[in-house]
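User: I've been trying to design a sequence by hand for this structure and keep getting stuck. Would you show me what you'd pick, starting by listing the structure so we're on the same page?

Assistant: Good idea, let's start from the same input. This is the structure you sent:
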C-alpha cells in the first residue's frame, strides 16, 4: 500500500476511534442505555423504625422526600453514564411513596399493588441493567435494620432452591430471567453484604451501618445522595463486567410462616406441598411463576371480594 494511502487509512482509523471514545466517554460511558430502578424504603439513609416507614409515622413525610432524593441521585448517576430511558418501581409498603411530581418528565413509575412481578414489575429483556435503591437484609440474616423478606410480621424464611434469600435475591432472579443484570444496590451494610454474597460483586452504596433491628449509624442525606450517584455511575460504566443472576430451573420455592395456619390452608392447593407445620413448597418452571405465586400468597384475602 502506498505510504500516502496508508497514512490516510491510519488517520481514518484514528478518527473513528476518537468518535467512539467521544461517544462512550473516557470513563466508559455508553449511550442509549435503558435502566430499571426498584426503590424500597427501609434501606434509605437515616431510616431505622416504623416512624419513618409508613403513613402513620411522624417522620414518614420527610422520609418520602429522602427516598425520592435517593432515586433522583441514582438518575443523575445513570444519566452521566449514558442512560436515556428509565422505569422506576415504587416498591415499599403501599407502593405510593415516591413524590412523583419531583421526578424528571421523561421517566415512568410503577405504583401500588398487586403486581405479577412484585418489586420488579415492568422489567423485560429490553433493559440493560437494574439497580436496587433503599433495600434491606433478609429475614434470616443475622444483622440489618428492619431485616425481613416480604413481610416481617408473617414470614420467617423464603428460599429459592434451598437458599434463603432477601428481597434483593428475588428481584435479581426476576431480572435474571430476562437476562438483565442487577449492577448496584444501596442500603445498610448488612443489605449490601448479603446481596453481594448472592448476586456477585455488584456496586454497593452503604448509607448506614446497622447496630440492631431498629438502630444504626447513618450518613447525612446529602452524603448518601452523593454516594448513590457515584456508585450508580460506576456500576453502569463497567456494565460489561456484570452477568445476570439466573436462578436454576425448575425453581423450588419454600416459604416458612411464623404461624402454621397459612401453610395448612395453602397446602389444600394441589400445586403446593407442606414439608413441615409452618412451611409450604411450590416448584415452578421459572422465576416469573415464582413471583406470581409469592404475590398471590401475600395478597389474596376474602377482603378483595365485594
Amino acid at each position: 500500500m502506498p505510504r500516502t494511502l496508508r497514512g490516510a487509512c491510519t488517520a481514518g482509523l484514528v478518527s473513528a476511534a476518537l468518535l467512539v471514545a467521544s461517544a462512550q466517554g473516557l470513563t466508559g460511558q455508553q449511550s442509549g442505555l435503558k435502566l430499571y430502578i426498584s426503590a424500597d424504603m427501609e434501606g434509605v439513609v437515616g431510616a431505622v423504625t416504623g416512624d419513618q416507614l409508613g403513613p402513620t409515622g411522624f417522620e414518614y413525610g420527610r422520609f418520602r422526600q429522602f427516598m425520592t432524593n435517593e432515586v433522583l441521585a441514582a438518575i443523575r448517576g445513570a444519566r452521566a453514564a449514558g442512560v436515556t430511558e428509565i422505569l422506576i418501581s415504587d416498591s415499599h409498603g403501599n407502593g405510593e411513596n415516591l413524590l412523583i411530581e419531583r421526578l424528571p418528565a421523561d421517566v415512568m413509575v410503577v405504583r401500588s399493588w398487586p403486581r405479577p412481578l412484585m418489586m420488579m414489575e415492568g422489567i423485560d429483556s429490553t433493559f440493560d441493567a437494574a439497580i436496587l435503591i433503599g433495600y434491606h437484609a433478609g429475614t434470616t440474616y443475622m444483622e440489618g435494620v428492619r431485616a425481613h423478606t416480604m413481610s416481617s410480621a408473617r414470614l420467617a424464611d423464603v428460599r429459592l432452591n434451598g437458599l434463603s434469600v432477601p428481597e434483593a435475591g428475588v428481584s435479581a432472579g426476576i431480572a435474571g430471567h430476562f437476562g438483565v443484570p442487577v449492577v448496584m444496590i444501596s442500603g445498610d451494610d448488612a443489605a449490601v453484604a448479603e446481596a453481594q454474597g448472592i448476586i456477585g460483586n455488584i456496586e454497593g452504596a452503604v448509607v448506614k451501618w446497622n447496630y440492631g433491628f431498629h438502630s444504626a449509624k447513618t450518613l447525612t442525606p446529602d452524603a448518601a445522595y452523593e454516594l448513590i450517584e457515584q456508585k450508580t455511575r460506576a456500576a453502569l460504566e463497567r456494565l460489561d463486567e456484570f452477568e445476570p443472576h439466573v436462578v436454576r430451573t425448575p425453581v423450588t420455592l419454600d416459604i416458612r410462616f411464623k404461624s402454621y395456619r397459612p401453610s395448612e390452608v395453602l397446602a389444600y392447593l394441589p400445586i403446593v406441598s407442606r414439608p413441615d407445620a409452618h412451611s409450604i413448597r411450590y416448584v415452578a418452571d421459572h422465576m416469573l411463576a415464582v413471583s406470581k405465586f409469592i404475590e398471590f400468597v401475600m395478597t389474596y384475602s376474602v377482603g378483595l371480594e365485594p
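That's my pick for every position. To get oriented when you compare it with your attempt: Confidence is low (pLDDT under 50) at residues 1-27. The longest strand covers residues 203-212.
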